[in-house]
Amino acid sequence: MVKFLLIFFVISLVLRFVLPVLMRWLVVGFVKKQTRRYSQQFGANPFEAPAEPPRNHSAGAGQVRVDYVPPKQQAKAAKHFEGGDYVDFEEVK
């Protein structure tokens, strides 16, 4: 009985104190490794703020400049909705 309690106590201490530290260390290592892969693949650090796009100072204060206006599609004739079929409700017990 004493041997069981001693083993139970040691396992509970490991689960309570050692496992969270070990898991934190593993997760931090994994995140750092993925950050390095991302930096190599895309050439940027995901934890840094993105660079600001160059500002165009030609527009005055309070004015909006639109670079692209999509072409307008021809309006399709709206179909007139006559309504659906009437379904009588019957309560089933």
Automatic annotation (TrEMBL):
UniProt keyword terms in alphabetical order: Membrane, Transmembrane, Transmembrane helix
Name used for this protein in its record: DUF4834 family protein
Pfam families assigned to the protein according to its UniProt record, in alphabetical order: DUF4834
InterPro entries in the record: DUF4834 (IPR032272)
Organism domain of life: Bacteria
Source species: Hymenobacter volaticus
Transmembrane segments: 6-27
